[in-house]
Amino acid sequence: MLNNWLKIAFINYKKNWLSTIINLFGLTIGLTGFMLILMHWNDEESYERWNPKKENIYAFQTHNKAENTYGNNISVPMAERAVKVIPEVKDFVLFNGSGMGYKMTTKVKTVYQGEGMSASESFFNFFPFRLVSGSYKDALKGDKAMALSTKAAKNLFGKTNVAGETVKINNKSFVVTAVYELPEANSQIKPDFIFSPYEQMKGDKEQWGNFNYGCFFLLKSGTDVEALQQKFYDNIFLYRAKISAQGAGVTPQKYLELYGPTGSLFTPIDKIKLHAKASWFGNGDFKTMMILFTLSVLIVVLSAINFINLKTAQASQRAKEIGVRKAIGSTKSNLVLQFLLETFVICLASYLLSLALTELLLPSFNKFYNKEIVMNDWHIYFYSFLMVLAVTLISGLIPATYLANFKAIETLKGNFARSKHGIWLRNGILTLQLIISSFFIIGGLIVNKQVKYMMDKDLGFSGKQVFLINFSENSDKPWLKYERIKNEMRKIEGVADVSYGEAVPGSGRFSNSNMDYMDKSIFAQHGSMDYNYLQFMDVKLKKGRWLNPDLASDTIANVLVNEAFVNKFGWTDDQAFKNEVRPGFDNKPYHIVGIVKDFNILNPRRAIEPIVFFHYRETDWKRYNVYNIQLKIKPDDIDGTVKRIKSYWQKNVEPGYPFDSYFIDKKFAESFVKYQKQQTLFTILNAMVLMVALLGLFALSSLMIEQKLKDVAIRKTLGASDGNLIFGLTKQFLWITFIAVLISIPISYYLMNEWLKDFDYRIDMPVFPFVLSLISLLILTFAVVSIKAYQATKVNLVKYLKYE
């Protein structure tokens, strides 16, 4: 019986070769997209799974409920108190720096070693890397202990058995206490060397408001995380507020409102890569992942729709076969199984083809996402095969049930074609397919318009030809280093101007603190800078004046602010000049002397935050954070100037260190990459959807028009013109398309409006994508269907009328 079913299946595949190819093509494309996105999702979820303690390690995040914003930092006394007073908290580890690099000297050589981390002494209790040399006991205790990865040990000493050896950094000696091997599995925490921020933590032990550390907590098994968040509020946040509120002259609750945070959030360590609201190691984007996954599933659904439509449209070709089989005793269940088998063979062939296509596209996909995914995870094969089975059931069971329900007597008489049931089924499914296609067209156009809007938006500064060099070598007095070299670098041929700014567009680096005025407080970014920095970056002055190096007050207590700063306090520009603010980084009042136009620093998607600009010498500690020098390069010989700058830097400023530099406009452009990739993927998926839908429409219209060739011959004999015949054959499909687009418009509007809500700088919902979707789909439908309709007008009249 099985052999007989397979023979019949292959006869039908050959007979309906166009439908077979379209089904194979559509399912292969759909399954390939599904597997690629599934592998991407699986790779993002696999981070930190190697850690044997992952079930009990949670990343700590703060939550400001009033503004619904999240942070990733904590202070030392908050972490220490949590261990003391909350029974569920067993231990904590603090991070104070990552991605660090130094020129290190050993008895063997002096080399630059990057990818370092500063972490508290309990680090290896959280991350039990395989120990190669030394001991983890007290491995990070004190300010002179250092642990190395096997890679760093080989770089510094040429071997891995180096526990007890000495490493010098800036004339300070460290003892290597342990050598570890980093896991090969995906991880965001892969430091090549680690030392403890011992001295800094010691100074921060009483600094409740110094949120300079990232944190993981080790919790007891079975901890109720929601209850733990409430305990943090009661025992940590409220406790801190009670200590500080008296000095601020407000209640603890008011203090929390002013200075926050007001809540905490805990994310399992193996979920932070994709699910964390805020993370020391980078925020995840689960929403985008779900959008991509949903779109990939929709393409598979469209392929299944093609299958259903084509199978039901072929009913007339199978009706007499079914009637005969029923007449000789075949049961309904046998017929359903037979048609399911036919569907499964196509789906299985598509699955095998999609595996080959996925392997072929994987290198390009990895390059696109900067990953190293390989097809060696059984989950990918398992879930993609489940999708094949689901498609088999969905796309096979509906037409199989429909065909198996034919009545033997009616089909043998030839009356099956008069049933409206199959027509309604096909039209309904075709409408669903066109609704999805319309959504993709509308969504694709809106995504393109939003990305273009962000890229074309006036950023409020000009980073063109501004070349930034980060200081790699630590200096006891970095501001003196900057002041020493800036005049020398001005002399380099091709350099037009030199400056320094802390808040650099695209750098991702920033610091902030509360800014207080009477009983109101806001958080503002710090923009320590050289006097000429804002003019250097072509930032526009809205009102007031620039800082002046000839005025002593401009180095002591005068600042500039941006428009967002003024708006956040609810002031007018004139009020801002009359009011003095007290920043969290100092005890004295500061006077605003100028207001600059807003310019974007962090992200083109987010609203511009309040910033306060001041000279780096205004505060004792800010001058120690001078970390770059910026040069404006003349346009006539940019490449030559960069070479001269690099040569001077490596010979006279930081010999032996990497030349860490970039053009600011190109660096800021990287912040658009994420959205450009979304735009590219949406465009690709859009093309795939339209291709699958239009091929299905072509095959379906071909089958349905084939069934009307006798009607066409009669009407042509009676004098109907080719134009009337073509319009008559396409009219039904045009109405279906029109209705589908009308249904898709409110759905698309709602979904795309939700997507746009993630952007503080967003377009108004445009009308043209909805109109263009209607017009383009009507044109494409007419073009696709009219091809077969035109062929139908050229039928041989004798062939279709000789039996009448």
Automatic annotation (TrEMBL):
The keyword Lyase does not apply. InterPro entries: ABC3_permease_C, MacB_PCD, Macrolide_Exporter_MacB. Residues 294-405, 685-796 form the ABC3 transporter permease C-terminal domain. Its main location: membrane. It holds the Pfam family FtsX. Keywords: Cell membrane, Membrane, Transmembrane, Transmembrane helix. The keyword Transmembrane helix applies. Residues 20-231, 434-646 form the MacB-like periplasmic core domain. It is a multi-pass membrane protein. It is found in: Cell membrane. The chain crosses the membrane at residues 21-41, 289-310, 335-358, 378-403, 424-447, 681-705, 733-752, 767-790. It comes from the Bacteria. This is ABC transport system permease protein. It comes from Epilithonimonas pallida. The lineage of its organism: Bacteria, Pseudomonadati, Bacteroidota, Flavobacteriia, Flavobacteriales.
